[in-house]
Design a protein that fits this description.
5-stranded antiparallel β-sheet; Beta-Lactamase; alpha+beta; single chain; elongated
């Protein structure tokens, strides 16, 4: 007997519903602490749909076989236990109140006893079996809906209120359909009866979805619905194609007097279906993703594109900026920032912030965190490391952290971890239309942070390798320079000493001849200058050993240097502006520190040439997180971009009489003290040298 279109829809619906419920059942079994009534509810529904699907298939394969009755009994068994298991499940998940408190003691009897009684009545030939089941189902549905409505009114959280309202609405709808079908008798109508029967047959899928989503929340669509829906739909399509296409085509060809055998035609068409199975599977997966999981589908494509962006092996800062802008655009978040830093022993350093450009039509967003916010970043990172989850301001019960994030206008903070070590924070402000972030957005941000951490670590590894190569090259060059310096010391200084001694004696003998004595004085001064050049070369090639750093008063050190160079500044008509606060301490060698700032301030004075209208040199110092920064700026012509890249190289100079070793020694001494030095041009005119030194508190 051929299946009609109505019977085919019934069969496909049963297969899809059974696949979905068995998928939820398997996930519920794996989930610890799943209540027994819930397991019975899911399995009862799955048995009902499975038995009905098997009944139809067996009737088609072997009409009149005894297995048809067994399949019908399986379906009946599941259907009879469904209403009582529903009531028990509602009670199991309900909050405490008067009705629930009394009924919860009898969960097991409520779950099993009514179902057993109705099943036994159904197995008998009692005339009241249809009426008894319909009244039993209506009573259980309405009572469960009544309880859900009461739970919704008493629930304190919005999530529970929405769940119970939806469940009450769905159960009431099924009860109304049951009333129309049985007591009123519309099921017997030839017009609406078949449609009503089909709708009533598939109606339990609605509360199953609601209940499953409430239990699994964010992971429901990912671990339950998506695979179950996909394979159920795929099975339904295969059955539909077989019953409505393959079988009917084979039978039509068999009725023709052409010698075709039905079995052979079916085998050929089934082989063709198997051949097309993989393309159909891929196409169906894409359709389901776009229809039911559109956000996840779009986020997966975005994640793939951003992963390719992060894998480009250069310009990390620009790539991270592109990622931040893309996240803000897709998630409709106006302010998105990535805070990258170095984290060692609970301290944050080298903070760098990449902020999004903001959404169109809004003012530019405020960039959270900066160089001076190290303590706040450490507080946030400390919380993230302890709690091992993203920091959501809406769920935070920590007044100090709430104040920090409110000041920075951050709603969500996700750690960027590389092997459990924090390397950054992804900070998001409020969404354009308010509301919380969805499960798909949480997954996207978590995966994206892993990709960002990997990109940062790869870039740092490359930078460390290049730094080691530069250090090796520098060490080789200094080694060669040391040998050269030793040769110079031997070949130049010894003859210079002899020349100086002879010139000194000659000058004393020729005191009466002022002209010759003056010429010899010039010779002696040049000999001293050559000796200083050689000494400086030796000092650069063979730096002194570190005798131990001291905690120094930075203002006192800078005042000593400025005092020494005050007369040189007056001679050059240069004003020195001294803007250094009291109480700043640094860790370093006092003599090296004085020489560093002596060179920088002297270079700044000499850079202010005669035609400069504004003749001012400024010395500033400020406290940074974990250290101190000293800035020496002048109003000279500045340094070209090409020369900025080479200004710290040994023997590079733009002065006619310079040796090119002053700034090279400055850089070497600063780095030996654990600091760093940078050069740039000021906004107006002149150059700015910024020296970062470790603070005195780090020495403790």
């Amino acid at each position: 007997m051929d299946l009609s279109l109505y019977e085919t829809i019934w069969l496909v619906g049963a297969v899809i519903a059974a696949g979905l419920l068995w998928g939820i059942f398997v996930s519920a079994i794996k989930r610890k602490g799943t209540p027994l009534p819930l397991l019975l509810l899911i399995s009862a529904g799955a048995l009902w749909y499975t038995g009905d699907a098997l009944r139809i298939l067996i009737e088609q394969a072997a009409p009149g076989a005894g297995a048809v009755n067994y399949a019908a009994h399986v379906a009946r068994f599941g259907l009879d236990f469904l209403p009582s298991a529903l009531l028990a499940t509602v009670l199991a998940f309900a909050d405490e109140h008067k009705v629930a408190r009394g009924l919860r003691r009898y969960l097991i009897p409520i779950t099993f006893v009514p179902g057993v009684i109705i099943f036994l009545i159904g197995m008998s030939q009692a005339p009241i079996k249809r009426v008894s089941f319909s009244l039993y189902a209506i009573a259980m549905l309405l009572f469960s809906a009544y309880l859900c409505r009461g739970f919704a009114m008493r629930s304190e959280t919005e999530v529970h209120k929405v769940f119970y309202r939806l469940m009450a609405f769905a159960l009431t709808g099924i009860a109304v359909l049951t009333v129309f079908a049985y007591p009123i008798g519309l099921l017997q109508s030839t017009v609406v009866g078949p449609v009503l029967a089909l709708v009533l047959f598939l109606s339990p899928i609605a509360p199953a979805y609601i209940l499953g989503y409430f239990i699994y929340r964010y992971s429901f669509f990912q671990i339950v619905v998506n695979p179950a829906l996909f394979y159920s739909a795929l099975t339904g399509i295969v059955l539909t194609v077989y019953l409505l296409v393959i079988r009917r085509v084979a039978e039509a060809l068999g009725r023709l007097d052409s010698g075709f055998r039905v079995e052979v035609v079916e085998a050929i068409l089934i082989s063709l279906l198997i051949f097309l199975f993989q393309p159909i599977k891929n196409r169906l997966q894409g359709i389901i993703n776009r229809l039911f999981f559109r956000a996840r589908y779009e986020y997966q494509h975005l994640l793939g594109a951003l992963s390719q962006t992060l894998n480009v092996p250069h310009a990390l800062e620009n790539r991270l900026k592109s990622v931040v802008d893309a996240v803000g655009t897709v998630l409709k978040v106006h302010a998105v920032s990535l805070v990258v830093f170095e984290y060692e022993e609970g301290r944050v350093s080298q903070v760098q912030v990449m902020a999004s450009s903001g959404l169109p039509g809004f003012e530019p967003p405020v960039t959270p965190f900066g160089d001076g916010d190290g303590a706040q970043i450490e507080a946030v990172v400390g919380w993230l490391l302890v709690h091992r989850r993203p920091l959501d301001v809406g769920d935070l019960h920590h007044p100090a952290l709430t104040a920090i994030l409110a000041k920075q206008r951050v709603e969500l903070c996700i750690p960027v971890l590389q092997e459990e070590k924090p390397v950054g924070l992804l900070c998001l402000g409020e969404k354009k239309r308010g509301g919380s972030f969805s499960s798909e957005e949480w997954d996207l941000l978590g995966t994206l942070c892993n990709q960002i951490a990997l990109a940062i670590e790869n870039t740092r590894l490359v930078e460390r390798r290049l730094q080691l190569e530069r250090q090796m090259y520098e060490a080789e060059r200094l080694s060669a320079l040391g040998l050269l310096s030793a040769s110079i010391a031997h070949e130049v200084k010894n003859p210079l000493s002899s020349i100086k001694a002879i010139a000194t004696v000659l000058r004393e003998d020729l005191q009466s001849d002022q002209t010759k004595a003056g010429d010899l004085s010039v010779v002696l001064r040049e000999i001293d200058r050559l000796n200083r050049v050689v000494d400086r070369l030796l000092r650069f090639a063979q730096p002194k050993q570190d005798d131990g750093a001291q905690v120094l008063d930075l203002k006192a050190v800078l005042e000593d240097v400025v005092l020494i160079l005050f007369h040189e500044a007056e001679r050059q008509n240069v004003e020195i502006c001294f803007e250094v606060a009291d109480g700043l301490v640094v860790k370093g060698d006092p003599e090296d520190l004085k020489e560093v700032f002596f060179n920088l301030i002297l270079n700044g004075i000499q850079a202010i040439e005669g035609d400069c209208t504004e003749r001012r040199l400024t010395v500033q110092a400020r406290q940074l997180h974990g250290g101190v920064e000293v800035r020496v700026s002048d109003t000279g012509p500045g340094i070209s971009a090409e020369n900025q890249a080479r200004v710290f190289e040994p023997f590079f100079t733009t002065k006619a009489s310079g040796t090119g070793l002053g700034l090279a020694i400055v850089k070497r001494d600063v780095e030996r003290m654990g600091g760093a030095i940078e050069v740039a041009n000021a906004d107006g005119t002149g150059a700015v040298f910024a020296v970062q030194l470790p603070g005195g508190d780090d020495a403790a």
